[in-house]
Design a protein that fits this description.
single chain; about 325 residues; Peroxisomal Thiolase, Chain A, domain 1; five-stranded mixed β-sheet; 14 strands; binds coenzyme A
């Protein structure tokens, strides 16, 4: 009986470059409060958010992702045809087919790459890094473009006090390719599906179609419940990712948690005993929570602003709807 042939990829994989796209329009808390019953002071104190970006009308998840992706490809010193796979982490692509990844691939000029979307909300990007790492090492792709892109303004009720002030639009990307040394540590990931009701879309698209006078489906979340889950259950996940990578927290150059709320970020850093010399990403202050875009945007900022240097280690952790989470230590490009 003949045996199936197998192939192996690179010994290791690493992030080769980052890219970012922040929509032009900056939205202040005061503008949010023109519709929302809240105040600039409350939003700053409870979330740390001062401004966020809103995408222009007609500017899609694929458009934003393609901007970030193109920048990442250029910075890796590659051309679009070098990309074997495009993974788009998103929860706000408004059609089921074709995928946002396919649309972005066509815009970027890498339309022959395999492309697919990955939907795990705010954990989407770190899930994508894990999948790309396995693809490069498993031999199914040499260069994988992982994009996190979300247009939250389509799914947020601007009058909802529990969510309207938090979210923004944007996209970030990384190219993951072969490496001689380990550049991406083992991913620690999982779900808490019993708590899925904590962050939901209010109704399905078919309910919206079939119900008389149905309101547009929007995001609805149990904010304080998610806050507690994030603070108490995600710090141990981050610690496990450090252990899996055999890295001490003091060896990190940066801690880049999902940018949900500054109080969650600060509490996690405190629980992990992140020392002062480790840069903690606080992109949420002027980006808000961009869901799958949040970690790559924050990572890109640390690099482009020179807050970290190439070769340093960063701990990434994404968490959100599902409830789902994933974390890994990566070497900075
Ligand atoms: C949503 C969130 C900012 C609310 O902050 P909070 O400190 O938990 O606030 P609470 O809901 O406990 O409400 C506290 C008080 O503020 C009021 N309040 C709630 N939202 C408000 C708003 N937008 N503006 C002004 N006041 C508000 C409440 O009515 C309550 O008043 P009371 O004490 O008189 O009853 C916070 O829970 C959060 O960030 N959760 C995580 C959300 C998240 O990260 N989601 C994405 C996951 S990936």
């Amino acid at each position: 009986m003949s045996q199936i042939g197998s192939r192996r990829g690179a010994e290791y994989a690493r992030i080769l470059s980052t890219g970012a796209y922040r929509p032009e329009r900056i939205v202040t808390n005061d503008e949010i409060c023109e519709v929302l019953d809240s105040s600039d002071q409350w939003i700053r104190e409870r979330t740390g958010i001062v401004t966020r970006r809103f995408a222009a009308p007609g500017e899609t998840v694929a458009d934003m992702g393609a901007h970030a992706g193109t920048q990442a490809i250029e910075r890796a010193g590659l051309t679009p045809s070098d990309i074997d796979a495009v993974i788009m982490a998103t929860s706000t692509h408004m059609v089921s087919m074709p995928s946002a990844a396919a649309l972005a691939a066509a815009i970027m000029g890498c339309g022959r790459a395999t492309s697919f979307d990955l939907t795990t909300a705010c954990a989407g990007f770190t899930h994508g890094v894990s999948v790309a790492n396995d693809m490069v090492r498993g031999g199914s792709a040499r260069h994988v473009l992982v994009i996190g892109s979300d247009r939250m303004t389509d799914v947020v009720d601007p009058a909802d006090r529990g969510s309207a002030m938090i979210f923004g639009d944007g996209a970030g990307a990384v190219v993951i390719g072969p490496s001689d040394v380990p550049g991406i540590g083992p991913t620690v990931w999982g779900s808490d599906a019993d708590q899925s009701a904590a962050l939901v879309q209010t109704r399905s698209w078919t309910e919206y179609r079939d119900e008389d006078d149905a309101a547009w489906p929007v995001l609805s979340m149990m904010g304080p419940k998610i806050f507690r889950w994030a603070v108490w259950e995600m710090a141990p996940v981050a610690r496990r990712a450090l252990e899996a990578a055999e890295v001490d927290v003091a060896d990190l150059a940066a801690f880049v948690p999902h940018q949900a709320n500054i109080r969650i970020i600060d509490q996690m850093a405190k629980q992990l005993k992140v020392p002062d010399h480790v840069v903690v990403a606080r992109d949420v202050v002027d980006s808000g929570n961009t869901t799958a875009g949040s970690i790559p945007l924050a990572l890109d900022r640390l690099i482009t602003e020179g807050q970290v240097t190439s070769g340093g280690l960063a701990l990434l952790i994404g968490f959100g709807a599902g409830l789902s989470y994933s974390a890994q230590v990566v070497e900075l490009p």
